[in-house]
Design brief:
The chain is α/β, with parallel strands linked by helices. Helices cover 37% and strands 22% of the residues.
Length: 327
């Protein structure tokens, strides 16, 4: 199965965390908040929800704690239509992630509680219980590799996906606070990238993997020698995508952002959904960028992920993307 054939199959197994997000109402600072908006969060869960909203199938593989927050996450996965057959509830001191994100850009603050995170307890047994042959592509975000046993389990999932002949889509998603050291992170994320068919990351993440902030783009080019598609995101400057031996520059859809979070998850969902619909790589990247803009212009992450009608309306109403970076 080729990478694009797998993506077009539209049945994704997504590995990684689901959590609860709290956001102060009325764009208040957390320390002055009196009311909170609650929503499902976690990069992998957000991506899965975005895929389902855009008409695809997504099942999540992770662990949640046996408490009210864990049950909230299970209920939310059901509400979004994300499969949770492979979401295991665990008992013990580990807890489902809780994040507080402000709906503001100026002086934005995020506080993430991930001590003894439940999702890091995903084990070899969890991934070996998955029939990867029932899916057509695997997606994960890099945080799953930050601790054991989740790291070993996810590398095993990559091996099982390769044995099943389905493509691996990897969002680098480097979060320094989750890792024991930068050296471990650089080594592990580079190993994951070498096994992946599609790699998505920003300039800082590729620079980190290269060991030099100025060598990120060269690292992306190098990874494109083994991966079919590598997306090198450059924030407000757009992105450069390496695919089929070509460098494809694309811009962004400027909006008035109300928060900086959720853009990457929505981009991934929109990009994958567009490829699944048979669109060319450049068009798919632009549609993913439009999804990112939609999310940063609204409160919440999973709730802000657009469905197909919302995406099409946005594209019709928006004057169009910027020209993008020069090659």
């Amino acid at each position: 199965m080729t990478t694009l054939t797998g993506i077009k199959g539209g049945k994704f197994v997504v590995i990684g965390r689901v959590g609860m997000d709290l956001s102060p109402q009325d764009r208040a600072q957390t320390e002055h908040a009196t009311e909170m908006f609650v929503a499902m969060g976690g990069s992998s869960a957000n991506i899965a929800a975005g895929l389902v909203k855009l008409g695809l199938s997504a099942d999540l593989v992770t662990c949640v704690s046996d408490d009210a927050v864990g049950r909230y996450c299970l209920n939310q996965l059901d509400a979004y239509g994300v499969g949770r057959k492979h979401v295991r509830t665990i008992q013990g001191e580990e807890r489902t992630s809780l994040a507080i994100y402000e709906t503001r850009v100026t002086d934005h603050q995020s506080v993430i509680y991930r001590n003894n995170a439940a999702d890091f307890q995903m084990s070899l047994h969890d991934v070996e219980a998955v029939d990867f042959g029932q899916f057509t592509a695997l997606i994960t975000a890099g945080t799953v590799f930050a601790a054991e046993p989740s790291r070993t389990a996810t590398f095993r999932a990559f091996e099982l996906a390769q044995e099943a002949g389905i493509p691996i889509i990897f969002d680098v998603d480097y979060r320094p606070y989750s890792w024991p050291s930068t050296e471990v992170a650089a080594d592990v994320l580079s190993r994951a990238g070498a096994m992946s068919d599609v790699i998505v990351g920003n300039d800082e993440e590729f620079g980190f993997m290269a060991g030099d902030p100025d060598k990120g783009r060269a690292k992306a080019r190098d990874l494109a020698q083994t991966a079919d598609i590598v997306v090198y995101k450059m924030g407000p400057h757009g992105a450069v995508t390496y695919a089929n031996g070509a460098e494809i520059p694309t811009g962004i859809y400027p909006v008035e952002a109300v928060k900086p979070t959720g853009a990457g998850d929505s981009f991934m969902a929109g990009f994958m959904a567009s490829l699944a619909q048979g669109r060319d790589v450049k068009t798919a990247i632009l549609r993913g960028s439009a999804c990112a803009s939609i999310v940063v212009a609204q409160a919440g992450c999973a709730p802000a992920m657009p469905d197909t009608d919302q995406l099409e309306t946005f594209l019709l109403d928006h004057p169009g993307p910027t020209s993008g970076p020069t090659q």
